[in-house]
Amino acid sequence: MAKEKEGWDLDRKLEEYAREDFYPFHMPGHKRNPVIFPNPYTIDITEIEGFDDLHRPKGILKEAQERAARLYRSEKSYYLVNGSTCGILTAVSAAVPPNGKLLMARNGHKSVYHAAYLRGLSTAYVNPCMTDFGILGAVNTEEIRRCLEKEPEIQAVIITSPTYEGVVSDIAAIAELVHGFGIPLIVDEAHGAHLGFHGSFPETALHLGADVVVQSMHKVLPSLTQTALLHLNSEYISPESIERYLDIYETSSPSYVLMSSMEKCICMLQEKREELFETYDMRLKSFYRKAEEFSKLHIMRKKDFSKREIFDLDISKIVISAKHTNLTGSDLEKKLREEYHLQMEMYSGFYVLGMTGIMDRKEGFERLYHALKEIDERISYVEEAREDTRQLIRALYTLKEKKMEMYEAMNLPVQTIPLKQAQGKISADMISLYPPGIPILLPGEIIDADFIKNIQKSLKIRLNLQGNADIINERINIVKI
What we know:
The chain is α/β, with parallel strands linked by helices. It has helices at 2-6, 9-19, 40-43, 60-72, 83-95, 110-119, 141-150, 171-180, 217-220, 239-249, 256-291, 329-340, 362-378, 387-396, 406-409, 449-460; strands at residues 23-25, 76-80, 101-105, 122-126, 156-160, 167-168, 185-188, 212-216, 228-232, 298-299, 312-313, 317-321, 342-344, 346-347, 351-355, 414-418, 431-433, 438-441, 465-467, 475-479.
């Protein structure tokens, strides 16, 4: 009987959590609201007669994707049920031939790096600026120009906009620049499926010249986890090429439950977009206005940045800074979760991030405001901001010396050694800060003394480091040569 009960642990835990009063300031964007939807078991089918085939759509799935294309005003839109990861792998593969060269923003999601590995690509990097606020800012257009002029063999550019924290780069200027070199621009807009639908939010990259835009519907919109869209508007990448690689990277058994939730979301936006976004905008702006009274905690705003640091900001991401307090990001996240039953999306060294969307309720914004107000009244103000955490994150994202390409390092024998003995060695690991999953060290890069020191500092302040390395026990894999 004990073994039988163990098999129900996940079901039971999910059901128990659903009955509790935790409010979700995290993805998925439906925010666990009871949207009218069939029992998933009753609609879970395969490609039977009359229900089309996502890989060769001719009927209802073709119409569904065309409906998405009309909503987003793209030439072609494709349903993704393997998340944005599937779309990124597809876009990079369609844009760059095997053993080609890709220019990417260093803050790319790990799926971009995986695409480079799978295609055997050489990679060049452009670092987003580090803002005075302490987060990664926009990708500078002139930095991209310098890279393209220096390395004319680059065949495509990919950047992330908006970032996890909502930072938006100047996509129109970057697209014009990149196209001037005769190559395509791919934008990882996973966190921006809502962009372009309301004046309070930045325009989507899809309407600013990007060739391929990949969006996660589930992050901010009322669609089930794992659903995403790939939009194509390009003279450089053909639909046939996109479809060829979707055949490779997308499951051959796409979930009709997930696709049905995508269609429901698209239809909801078609029919109620104005009403949903107006209500959401009112609640979100009301929260930001009231939060201005906090004297110790600070809610990130566009005015916190210079024009050099960011082009625009997506305010759907609520970034709560504790850098002038006696709390760390981890401390603040724990207080919100344990004392107020507010589950946030993520925390970093000195801030906490909450994700919002059109399905957020008035109750949620009010609970968050009152919780932060009480915390703000109880905590201590620190006159000098704790620069150490911000400097640490800045240092972690510093570009490392590349000894060999990532795909070369990942195909060589490896050896596991203590981290403190790894200085000067070539990493065989990808190590990322998660979320959002941005690599701070890649296979093929040199492990230097500063990196070892910064990893040890990160562990002390409980930054979440992920990868193949056993970082908790301070061991790392190196290339054995």
